[in-house]
Amino acid sequence: LTTVRELYKNQDKYIGQTISVGGWVRSIRDSKSFGFIVLHDGTYFETLQIVYHDKMSNFAEISKLNVGAAIIIKGELVATPDAKQPFEIQAAQIEIEGASTAEYPLQKKRHTLEYLRTISHLRPRTNTFQAVFRVRSLIAYAIHQYFQDRDFVYVHTPLITGSDAEGAGEMFQVTTLDLKDVPKTKEGQIDFTQDFFNKPTNLTVSGQLNGETYAMAFRNIYTFGPTFRAENSNTTRHAAEFWMIEPEIAFADLNDDMMLAEGMLKYIINYVLEHAPEEMNFFNQFVDKGLIERLTHVASSDFGHVTYTEAIEILEKNNDNFEYKVSWGTDLQTEHERYLTEEVFKKPVFVTDYPKDIKAFYMKMNEDNKTVAAMDLLVPGIGEIIGGSQREDDFDKLVNRMKEMKLNEEDYGFYLDLRKYGSTRHAGFGLGFERCVMYLTGMSNIRDVIPFPRTVNNCDL
Ligand code: 4AD
Ligand code: MG
């Protein structure tokens, strides 16, 4: 079978030739002695028009086809210079591979994204989700290419762990214990010695801690895998299961980290604009007007920089308009992040040097002893897309911080070891993959950029 992509890319080669294509019926319209089918084969954003005639032996069956049916067409590709599409197929033969019923949920009309979420097994057959998931695939490829071209080693970090990388306690526990009859210790605690791993374990919230160990062996590494968070945040930007890209670089500080992040994001933008022009035009026209112009501008201009302390000064002036008022020490909410990047800087902006108390235990303490060498990258339309930091590489300082934060040192033995055996300055960040897809497509709900989203109260399919 030829693909519709191939026909579009090399049309001169195929015009006048007899070819075969397989795909799904998007729409069908028949007259007495002929009819038209619009076919989508999934290989290309554009569709293909098919003309069929009553000279075909199964004309009656073809005319009765419903939207959604899978068919294979053989016929001549003819140029249609006056039509919207550059060519169509004059069918000589149409094989019905799998019929579809009249109840097929995707009829030729506009469906809401909310409705399409209820049929996540069929929504990839729509234009919007064809575009979203092809671009998602290309972004993943671009990210690998960016790091591989720079000799970063791709490290597969574990999904089941015994530690909490962020120290925030937002983990899904993993257990083989029977919840109806959980074994208890004499003290009445759950007896995890009877569990598979002989101790409590959970799904990872980040591959960073394991990633750091490989950066101390390979210098530059990255992870790219699923992470899980049991945050009770029912928002358009939070998922319980999402993918994260976490590079870690040795002999590097926070500035190197920000340069890496900026370079990566610009690379991805350029890659997608170049490799998915049809999809990006679709988003630009139907999802987020002005998207392409904005992204093009972002890819060719410098990102903004502001310290947390400066950001608070800016935000305090606008406190009247915020639901949550800010002052030095408060964590930034989405409304503050979006105000900074959309109203003040009007471009992606790095916020650096956050108060230690609102950041994770592993971040390097600044000389003021109040702030840490952290950076968040905020982008218009979303807010935080990247979170990163230079890591605390001093053994004593790290142990002190862990004590202050009441973390169990035993769970982090391997991590502390790194600070004993050839410790060096190093830094890294985490890019939320789904938030990156949202940013590049203009889609405004994280549920619409994940094939089968897992969010609060939702684990269907
Ligand atoms: O800021 P976070 O929590 O940072 C870390 O996990 C670090 N270990 C990263 C590192 O330094 N190696 O998460 C990183 C990014 C966020 O900026 C956000 O884009 C995304 O991950 N993220 C989520 N995306 C979707 N749903 C959630 N619940 C998310 N939580 C974080
Ligand atoms: Mg963060």
Automatic annotation (TrEMBL):
Reactions performed catalytically: tRNA(Asn) + L-asparagine + ATP = L-asparaginyl-tRNA(Asn) + AMP + diphosphate + H(+)
E.C. number(s) listed in UniProt: 6.1.1.22
Record-annotated Aminoacyl-transfer RNA synthetases class-II family profile domain positions: 133-451
SUPFAM superfamilies per record: Class II aaRS and biotin synthetases (SSF55681), Nucleic acid-binding proteins (SSF50249)
UniProt subcellular location: Cytoplasm
GO cellular component: a single term: cytoplasm
Broad class of the protein's primary localization: cytoplasm
Coiled-coil ranges (or none): none
Signal peptide bounds: none
Top-level division of the source organism's lineage: Bacteria
GO molecular-function terms, A-Z: asparagine-tRNA ligase activity; ATP binding; catalytic activity, acting on a protein; nucleic acid binding; transferase activity
Keyword field: Aminoacyl-tRNA synthetase, ATP-binding, Cytoplasm, Ligase, Nucleotide-binding, Protein biosynthesis
Biological process terms in GO annotation: asparaginyl-tRNA aminoacylation
InterPro entries documented for this protein: Aa-tRNA-synt_II (IPR004364), aa-tRNA-synth_II (IPR006195), aa-tRNA-synth_II/BPL/LPL (IPR045864), Asn-tRNA-ligase (IPR004522), Asp/Asn-tRNA-synth_IIb (IPR002312), NA-bd_OB-fold (IPR012340), NA-bd_OB_tRNA (IPR004365)
Pfam families (alphabetical): tRNA-synt_2 (PF00152), tRNA_anti-codon (PF01336)
NCBIfam families noted in UniProt: asnS, PRK03932.1
Subunit structure: Homodimer.
PANTHER family: ASPARAGINE--TRNA LIGASE, MITOCHONDRIAL-RELATED (PTHR22594:SF34), ASPARTYL/LYSYL-TRNA SYNTHETASE (PTHR22594)
Similarity section: Belongs to the class-II aminoacyl-tRNA synthetase family.
The protein, known as: Asparagine--tRNA ligase
